[in-house]
Amino acid sequence: MAPSPESKDRLDSLFNPRSRRQLSLTFAGATFVALSLFITRRAITRKNISTIPLFYQPSNAPPRIHINGQLEALEALTLASLNLTSVAVFLTGGLMWAFDVEGVQDLKQRMMRIRMQKKASTQTTYTEGDREAEEWFSRYLLGRRRKGDFKADAVASKSTS
Questions:
Q1: C-alpha span between 33 and 93 (Å, rounded)
Q2: How far is it between the farthest Cα atoms of the chain?
Q3: Which of 105, 96, 110, 97 is nearest to 15 (CA)?
């Protein structure tokens, strides 16, 4: 039984060079996530093992744990940054593949095309409500200017005197 032309086109589109480049970033991100999780897990395990008392340690003495708060905070920040960066690379690659975006230039071209379509579809019309609002604002602003409520007028009058 031969595959249908529709399924063959779909497979060709999944494995063409453009799609492979997009998926390579996704797989690189997935590898980066796996490595960062391995590093984080190893660091946590090392900290947990250091808290277990030694076999020959007396039971009436607390274990000697040397904690440096600054180094602990720095290590936590480093691991969190590593994990966040790896997940961001993974998601960026997946979204680029899902939206069929190959790079920044491709994204710029798509955005320009969308902007042009929106500009062509929207026509600015001057409605009766717009005219009423403009008249109301002009009356309101002129009334305030006559009363001297504007701060700019007050500042200008102070600077001239």
A1: 12
A2: 96
A3: 97
Q: Which residue has the tokens 């000697």?
A: 64
**DSSP label at 99?**
T
The answer for residues whose C-beta is within 8 angstroms of residue 93's C-beta and 6 or more apart is 22, 23, 24, 25, 26, 27, 28, 29
86 in Cβ contact with 32 (< 8 Å):
yes
Q: Which amino acid, residue 41?
A: R
- CB atoms under 10 Å from CB of 22, counted, come to 21
| Distance, CA of 45 to CA of 50 (rounded, Å) | 9
- pTM over the 0.85 mark: no
Tokens of 130: 């717009």
Question: CA-to-CA distance for 57 and 68, rounded, in angstroms?
Answer: 22
Segment 29-69, tens digit of pLDDT: 999 999 999 999 999 999 888 888 777 877 777 767 788 88
**Shortest CA distance to 36 belongs to which of 74, 1, 88, 99?**
88
Q: How many other β-carbons are positioned within 10 Å of the β-carbon of residue 19? A: 15
* Residues in the chain where the model's pLDDT stays below 70: 1-13, 63, 121-126, 144-161
50: Cβ contacts below 8 Å, ≥ 6 apart: 65
Rg over CA atoms, the chain: 32
